[in-house]
Amino acid sequence: MQSFFDYLSADHHRCDELFAEAEAAVGRRDWAVGTVKFQAFRAAMLRHLDMEESVLFPAFEARMGHAGGPTRVMCNEHAQMRELLGSMADSVSAADDEDYAGLAETLLWLMQQHNVKEEQILYPMSDQLLADARSELIGRMAAVPAV
């Protein structure tokens, strides 16, 4: 049976790869490719955030018996990521590689810090706390549509 850690960490890596592809294209000022790569990255990130917020976090909170704690911290960081993704989309539309680079650096730092917290704390806790529901919850996350 696949763990939350394995499933969601693999998705982190997929998002990281898409981020690197977009950043490389924008760095070359190849806006045709950069736009497509950024859109793919943004869609993957938004889907990842939605999988956690619509499936994992509510199940985690229900099992814990309260909302807040680690999921609240993660949701606050998700909101920051969404804001940065919106600003990055604006910089791609404006073909502003300097603005994009600054925003990408900020997002990269935030994603790295965020992923460590999820992978070292939240996912292992979820694997223990939700072991009996893991397969069903991962199935529901897999069914979350792309944004």
Question: Can you describe what's shown?
Answer:
The protein is built from 5 helices and no strands. With 147 residues, the chain is mainly alpha-helical. It has one domain: Oxygen-evolving enhancer protein 3 (PsbQ), four-helix up-down bundle (Four Helix Bundle (Hemerythrin (Met), subunit A)). It is elongated, with a radius of gyration of 16 Å. The mean pLDDT is 96.
Name some characteristics of this structure.
147 residues, mainly alpha, Four Helix Bundle (Hemerythrin (Met), subunit A), 5 helices, 84% helix
Largest sheet: none
Per the CATH scheme, the topology name is Four Helix Bundle (Hemerythrin (Met), subunit A)
Q: What is the CATH H-level superfamily? A: Oxygen-evolving enhancer protein 3 (PsbQ), four-helix up-down bundle
Report the sheet-strand fraction.
under 5%
Q: Quick gist of this model?
A:
This protein has 147 residues and is an all-alpha fold. Helices cover 84% and strands 0% of the residues.
Please render the helix and strand layout as text.
Layout (H helix, E strand, L loop, with lengths): L3 H24 L3 H34 L5 H24 L3 H33 L4 H9 L5
Helix pairs in contact: 1-2, 1-4, 2-3, 2-5, 3-4
